[in-house]
Amino acid sequence: MSKYFLLDPLTHFDNERAANIRHSEEKKIDDIHSSIHEKDKDQLTERDYLSHVSGRIVVKIDLNSKDKWAFSDGTVIDYKRRFNNLNLRETNPVNCIVISGENIPQNTEILVHPNSIHDSNRVFDYKADNSNIRYYSLPKDMCFAYYDNGWKPLKGYDFALRVFKPYNGFLVGIEPELVERCLYVTTGEFEGKAVMTLVACDYEIVFQGKDLREERLIRFRPFGDPENSREEEAVAILDDITDKIINGEYYVGLSISDAKPLDITAYAD
pTM value? Predict the structure, then answer.
C-alpha cells in the first residue's frame, strides 16, 4: 500500500519562521521534562508509610538520578549513561533515600549496589507508577554508605584508597605502579594505615555527588560479614608501606590518573 503526502507549494517558511517553530517545539519538550523533574522531586521528599523487616532497608530512588551533569556555571545537561555503556556500576543509579531501616534515620541518603535496583527487590503497587521514582526493599549488605555532613560507611564497611608506587628513574611520563592487594584505609579501626587485603576487595562505587557530578568511593569489608558467610578482607597491617605513604614515597588515590602524595589527595565530600 502506497503513502501519499500533499505539500502546498505556495507555503513558504523563511529561516526566521523556521527557527521560531523549532524553538517553540524545543520549549514544549523542555517544559514537559521540567514538569516531570519537579514532580519527581516532590515525590522524593514526601512522607512514605512503609516499614522494613529484619535484614532489609526500604528505600526510594529516582531512576534517572545519574542522567544529569552540572557545570561550574550552574548549567545542567542530560547525560544519558546507558547509551553504548554496559558497565552497570556506571549506568545504574545508586543514590537512594531511606524510608525505613534499622539505626538509619528516615530521609537519609545512602549508596547501594547497582545490581540491587532490580525487580526482585522492588515494592510493587505501592504508589501510582507514573513517575521515575521507584520503591525497593534492599538487603542491608547491599547498602554501603550514608550521608551525614560527608559520606560515611555503613556497619561492616570502611572506605579506602588504592596505593601506588611512583617511578623514580630518569625517564619522564612513566605512570606509577599499582600495589596489588593493598589499600590505604580512610575510616574505621584501621584509619591511616595500609593493609593487605584478599584479592579484588577494592570495590569502587560510582555515584552522583551533591553538585550533580560523578564521584567515586572504594569500600571494603575489613572484618568480613559473618551473617552472609563473607570472610575478613583485611589480612594484615603493612607498617612499612604506611610509613612510605606518610613520607610521600608512595601515592594514594582511586586510579593512576589521580594518584598523589597523601597530603594533597582529594577525598569525596
Answer: 0.84
